[in-house]
Design a protein that fits this description.
This protein is mainly β. It contains 2 helices and 19 strands. Strands 10, 12, 14, 15, 18 and 19 form a 6-stranded mixed beta sheet that branches. Strands 4-1-9-8-7 form a 5-stranded antiparallel beta sheet, with no helix packed on it. A 4-stranded antiparallel beta sheet has the order 3-2-5-6, with no helix packed on it.
């Protein structure tokens, strides 16, 4: 892991005002680049003084995370996770020693935030969750891309306030259109597959899809994938596995006889690592002892 170990922590003045946009550029020590210099060196047209978004939470979706840089003594033992706002449960993305360029994908089914764990504590993108009451994550839109740069300070009370202890990219997914067949799932009927017709945006090519990455609700891998044309994929999932997935989904929400449909999200990646997703619903009848019209 790229690490620039801090030889010592010196007296310093905080470079940021608490709970507000950046007031001055982050500082850096021992030959480390400032966050602003790192942006310039890596081709990001981002001004740390004016471009910080103030965003603290993120929309549900299938995200690709990438470690862009780390300049921290704690880098080998820092952990990164995401958490749903509803319960705050941590779901780990990177654990311990990772290297610059490492990537990971995750599917968040609801609005969420990120958490960086260091020996100094857990620091969230939501300032109100931080025990020291400070803003430990600066979030910027990525120019000419769909996603965010998240720059972290991993020391209690903002430490040296350099905000380049961990610099991460969170890339949002490309949205695709998905239609399921059959549209109505009858558990009493025969059949082997649930088929998804996946239409890509015109600027993307079906031949560039990593077919091994396609999943349903982040759990069921595709059994068969056929490229119908340059923008259309035909994907088949095991009917029995989909029934189990739907059963689990209905039990989580407390199944009632008037439930008529369940939302299914198809996710995948292109060969360059960019993620995509599409969501649609499927109707359910003859589920258990209930007859749903």
């Amino acid at each position: 892991m790229i690490i620039s170990v801090l030889a010592c922590l010196l007296d310093f003045t905080l470079a940021f005002s608490v709970g507000s946009s950046v007031s001055t550029q982050p500082v850096a020590y021992d030959g480390e680049p400032t966050l602003q210099q790192w942006f310039l060196d890596n081709g990001y047209a981002i001004n740390v003084t004016t471009d910080e978004t103030g965003i603290e939470t993120f929309a549900a979706g299938y995200y690709k995370m990438e470690i862009k840089a780390e300049f921290a003594a704690y880098a080998p033992i820092n952990n990164l996770s995401w958490y749903p706002l509803s319960n705050g449960q941590l779901n780990y993305i990177f654990l311990g020693e990772n290297v610059t360029g490492d990537t990971a994908c995750f599917l968040a089914s609801e609005t969420f935030g990120f958490c960086l764990e260091s020996p100094d504590g857990r620091f969230y993108t939501e300032t109100l969750r931080n025990a020291d009451g400070k803003d430990h994550a600066l979030i910027f839109n990525i120019p000419q891309a769909s996603g965010y740069i998240i720059a972290w300070e991993d020391l209690w009370d903002l430490g040296d306030a350099d905000y380049q202890d961990a610099v991460l990219a969170a890339l949002t997914p490309v949205n695709v259109n998905v239609e399921y067949c059959p549209r109505t799932l009858n558990r009493k009927s025969e059949g082997r597959w649930i088929t998804a017709f996946v239409e890509l945006p015109k600027e993307f090519d079906a031949d560039d899809v990593d077919v091994s990455s396609i999943m349903l609700n982040g759990t069921i891998l595709a059994d068969k994938v056929h490229v119908e044309d340059s923008h259309l994929l035909v994907v088949k999932f095991s009917r029995e596995e989909v029934i189990e997935l739907i059963r689990d989904s209905l039990e989580k929400i407390g199944f009632q006889c008037d439930v008529t449909e369940v939302s299914l999200t198809l996710t995948g990646k292109f060969t360059d690592g960019q993620t995509f997703q599409g969501t649609n619903s499927i109707h359910v009848i003859h589920y258990g002892d209930c007859y749903v019209k």
